[in-house]
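User: Run a structure prediction on this.
Assistant: Running it now.
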Amino acid sequence: MKANQFQNKILHHLNSYKEYLQNCLFLLCLLLLPAFQTLNAQGETKIEILNSEYMEYDRNIGSGVVKYVGDVAFKQENMMLYCDSAWLYSEENIVLAYDSVHIIQGDTLHLYGDRLRYSGDTKLAEVRRNVTLIDKETILTTDYLDFDLEKNVGYYEHEGHLVNGDNILDSKKGYYYTRSKTVYFMDSVIIVNPDYTIYADTLQYHTETEVAYFLGPTEIISPDNYIYCENGWYDTKNNVSQFNENAYLESSGQYLRGDSLYYERDKGMGMAFDQVELYDSANQIILRGNYAIYYENPEYAMLCDSTLLIQISDKDSLFVHADTLTSGTDSSGIYKILQAYYRVKIFSGDLQGKCDSLVFLEQDSVFQLTGEPVIWSKNYQLTATDIDVHMANGEPDYIDLANSAFIISRFDSIRYTQVKGRDMKGFFKEGELTHLDVKGNGQTIYFAADESQLIGVNKAESSNIAIYFAEGELDRINMISSPTAILYPPFDLSLEELFLSGFLWLEDHRPGKMEEIFDWID
């Protein structure tokens, strides 16, 4: 009986102890629950094997190292990895995968290759040989790619080839940010598009907007034009671009240069800002300004703000300034028409001028001046309602003065040699006026002198007059039709009688050097 009582007492104590242990374990679980949750969270970063046809384990290779072969599949969070065979280093959380490697992350990213080293801790996939990265509509191929699956950044340094829309991009090095859809290409960058090819040193490309940003010397070559810049961007989808730093565009024998160029390829339209220069190689003409707009078809350009037209000549270049310059073609689309309007001034070594509007016709090589035009040639001032200066080999050949033609030269401080008529035609040789024909209503005042001594004032009239010059000075005058002439003693005429009606001396407006064409006197 006593034995049974002792046994019952032992069982009672054991049950109490068991209950005590259960309570302690429960309390311990409550205390350790956060730690278990942390360990569980850390465990989620471990690479999990999902499938293989068979596996091998060799303790001599390393602790926890398993080889999987055949239809192998791994998983880590939202990343899936497939391959033909792989070694899983579970302690290091690393996979070495071989053949038919395929990584899938999310809904859009696919990464293929022949070999892979993947670290589950750093999320770095080092893919080698026949590498292909597919991100929506973008395909990147290379033989070397490191891809950070956590930061969504890929890097290659042994040449990469990217296809996006109509664009094919190649470079020796590159970074691909799949999250922002941005690729940085470096070293020997080439973009091939059906309409053009881009060569660059460094380039940033957005795969969704298809905008390329130039970060160094860049060339854009197409059948229609050539573009160079060192900074800027190109919207390849909409064919709109901005070029900066030493930027210029060359098209059909012309080039447009400026600190900044804006270009719409589909419209064939460009705009240039600051230190703009448009060069026409066929006609050896340069147009300059601080703002320009240019159209390729039909060919047209307009420049304003500090404009300058230069007709280049080996002997004596011609410079023209105006508020606005335009360049276009005639109705045939072959010959150039240049226009300068408002406050036009002209300078060359042999010829200077001033007017309100000027037109240069390439077909005839003629400058047409209207709006109170005046031309200075050596010692002579020529005015008329309209003046046409015909050029040959970049120099004045002959000049037409239509309506109220007037030529003046200074004889002394108060006297001026004058010829007036309805129309005149003057001829040049080596930049000097040699012969002048007056047609209709000719009138002259010139002074007879003997060794600089004034001996008389000759006033003459004739329907037509021929005037000849020698070494820049009046040599002789021929009255051709119904002449009348009177030689007056030197001081018989009053000061007013020494001037023909309409006389206007404009020497103060004459530019003495090229820089003075930017000065204007009202």
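The longest strand covers residues 432-450.
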